[in-house]
C-alpha cells in the first residue's frame, strides 16, 4: 500500500508542477487577469473537472503561483547572504549583494515578478498563506541590520518625532532587536529597492538610464548607508 500511495503522491506532484508551468506560460502571454483554469486544462489535455481536484478555483492557482514566486525571490536573497558569512563580509556589502540578487531574479523572471509586485489582479484577494513568503526578502535585510547593531557597527539614522511611535510599533511587530530609527529607514529602503527594480523591469528607464546595473548597485549602497550600515561596498 505504501508503494501505491507513494506513486500517487509523485503523480500528484508532477501534475501540480505541470499545471503551474502552464499557468506561468499564460501569465507571460496573457497576464494574470486572464489566467483561466479551463485554458490550462485544455493545453494539458485534461478535462476541467480533473484540474479542479488540484486547484478548486483560479484564485487557488494564483495563490500557489504567488507563493512560489515569493519563495523563489526570498531564496535568492537568502542564498546571497549565506554566501557571505557574517563577520567576514561587511554588513553593507551583504546588503548590496542581497539587493543585486533580488534584482537578478526579477530580471530573469519578469512575469512572476510582475505577479507579486505589479498591478493587483482584479477581484483577487491574497490569503494569509502569502504573508510568510512575502516577508522573506525583508527579513533578510532586517537580519543584516540587526547583526550590525549587535556588533556595534550601526549608525542610527535620523527619525522625525512624528514617526517615532510608528517606528516603535513596526520594530515590535516585525523587527525585534532593531532600533526604531533603522526600522523606519529600512521600510523606506525596501520600498525604494523594489521601486528601482520595477522602474527597470516595467520600462520606465527606457531612453533614460543605460547603465542600469551600475545605477542599481550605487543606489543599493546608498540605501545601505541610509539604514545605518557603514562603508557600503559592492557585491
From TrEMBL:
Cited Gene3D superfamilies: Tetracycline Repressor, domain 2
Superkingdom to which the source organism belongs: Bacteria
This protein's UniProt keywords: DNA-binding, Transcription, Transcription regulation
HTH tetR-type domain ranges (all copies): 13-73
Regions recorded as binding DNA: 36-55
GO molecular function: DNA-binding transcription factor activity; transcription cis-regulatory region binding
PANTHER family associated with the record: HTH-TYPE TRANSCRIPTIONAL REGULATOR RUTR, HTH-TYPE TRANSCRIPTIONAL REGULATOR RV1816
Entry protein name: TetR-family transcriptional regulator
Highest classification ranks of the organism: Bacteria, Bacillati, Actinomycetota, Actinomycetes, Kitasatosporales
